[in-house]
Amino acid sequence: MHDLHRYLRQMRDIYGDAIVLPPRTASEEDGSVTGTDGWQRTRSLEGFRERIHTCTSCSLGHTRKSFVFGVGNPDADIVLIGEAPGAEEDARGEPFVGRAGQLLNDILKAINLTREEVYICNILKCRPPNNRDPLPTEVEQCEPYLHHQIALIKPRIMLALGRIAAQTLLRTTDSLTRLREVEHTYQGVPLHVTYHPAALLRNPNWKRPTWDDVQRFRARYDALKKQA
């Protein structure tokens, strides 16, 4: 729209008032962005979601039921990141719902946090068929959306939920055990790694190491707050 206005103004300068311009919109006046392009310049999570929720840039955009953008506090200190929506998330349009979502809520409660305090999202915004792992081409398309979410939220610390999410974010094939042992950095933000809640439902023996992970995570978060 900005380019079109520039062009029409140039034509009016040449041909005079025979060229009639439409009035500038409020969004053009204040520099905000509307339409289907320019999502990189959106200034709020809600505006960003409105811009990209109809995305069909990869095949998942044609098979999804819902575009699962993310939920939580837009000014959160903490961002939790999974790999992609599952069947229940696809049906409801919200990440980490159902039994896995309830377990995640319980994990947050155990470290004195609530779902409303943090921000929860996935690398992919659409469900892969049959819950298969994300393809590299899908990550390539969708991960820039995650980058913009992080830039808008400006969290102090992040937690990757599950092996696939951690390996994808960190571009590694290291085991989940090794990835859980150290702090990483993603988009300039400290990143910790733990098990996916759905994995804990399948193997309750992993609940204890998850408890250890989130205790370290909480301690690191508290330390970062003191440094601010």
Q: How much β-strand is present in the residues? A: 5-15%
Detail the poorly predicted runs: 1-5, 19-36
| Helix-strand category | alpha/beta
How does the overall form come out from the CA principal axes?
Answer: globular
Average residue-wise pLDDT: 88
- State the order of secondary-structure elements, H for helix, E for strand: HHHHEEHHEHEHHEEHH
Number of E-state strands: 6
In short:
The protein is an alpha/beta fold and 228 residues long. Helix content is 47%, strand content 11%.
Question: Could you characterize what this model shows?
Answer:
47% of the residues lie in helices and 11% in strands. With 228 residues, it is an alpha/beta fold. Strands 1-3-2-4-6-5 form a six-stranded mixed sheet, sandwiched between helices. A hairpin with a 2-residue loop joins strand 5 (184-186) and strand 6 (189-194). It is globular and about 40 Å long.
Descriptive keywords:
228 residues; single chain; six-stranded mixed beta sheet; alpha/beta; disordered N terminus
Describe the protein's topology.
Layout: H1 2-15, H2 26-30, H3 45-52, H4 60-63, E1 71-72, E2 78-82, H5 87-92, H6 98-110, E3 119-122, H7 136-153, E4 157-161, H8 163-170, H9 176-180, E5 184-186, E6 189-194, H10 197-202, H11 207-227
Parallel strand pairs: 2-3, 2-4, 4-6
Antiparallel strand pairs: 1-3, 5-6
